[in-house]
Amino acid sequence: MHRSSTHPQLQVLEDTLPHKEIRDLSHLGTVIEVEAGRELTHRGEAGHECFLILAGTVEVDRGPDQPPVIVGPRQVIGELALLSHADHRATASAKTDVTILALSQDEFDQALNQCPEFAVKTLTRAVGRLASTLQSRP
After folding, report:
1. C-beta of residue 41 within 8 angstroms of C-beta of residue 79
2. Which whole number is the average pLDDT over 39-56?
3. How far apart, in whole angstroms, are the C-alpha atoms of residue 85 and residue 3?
4. From residue 86, how far is each of 8, 15, 44, 49, 126 by CA, in Å?
5. Residues with Cβ within 8 Å of residue 29, at least 6 apart in sequence
6. pLDDT of residue 105
C-alpha cells in the first residue's frame, strides 16, 4: 500500500459532490493505492475504517448464499460496520489496482456531519443494500 499526501485522485467526485465537500473529504481521509488481490475488509472482523473508491474495482463477497458484487469509483465500502459499530458483513478485495480514500470512524463521522451530500448518498446506498439483503432472505 502506498499512501499519498496529495489528493488529485478526488477529482473523480467532481460531478457528484460540491467542491467544498470534496475539499473537506480530502482533509479528513487518507488516499491509499492498493494492489489487486489485497483484502480491504474481512467478514466477521471489526470495522475501524471505511473506503471511498476513487479508481479501480473491488469485489465484495457477502457469503456463500449470495453472489459477489463488483463496486467501483464513487462507492463506499465498510461503512455499515462503522454505522452499526459491528463487524464487517462482507469481505472486500481489490479486483484491480485501486485508489481509495480511507476514513477512520472519527473521520467518517466528521464527513457525515460536514458533508451533507456525501452523507445522503452514502446513507441512501447503505439502506438500499440492507433492504436488498433483507429481501433476498427466505
Report:
1. no
2. 93
3. 26
4. 32, 32, 9, 12, 14
5. 52, 101, 102, 103, 107, 111
6. 95
Question: In order of start, what are the domains of the chain with their CATH numbers?
Answer: 2-130 (2.60.120.10)
Write down the pLDDT at residue 136: 65
Residue tagged 465484495 (cell numbers): 60
> pTM for the whole thing?
0.85
Around Cβ 101, how many Cβ atoms within 10 Å?
A: 23
pLDDT, tens digit (0-9, with 9 covering 90-100), for 61-115: 988 888 899 999 989 999 999 998 999 989 999 999 999 999 999 999 999 999 9
Helix, strand, coil percent values for the chain (each to nearest 5): 40, 30, 35
- The alpha-helical segments, DSSP class H, found in the chain are 19-28, 79-84, 105-114, 116-135
Rounded CA gap, 66 and 15, in Å? 32
Amino acid letter, 101: L
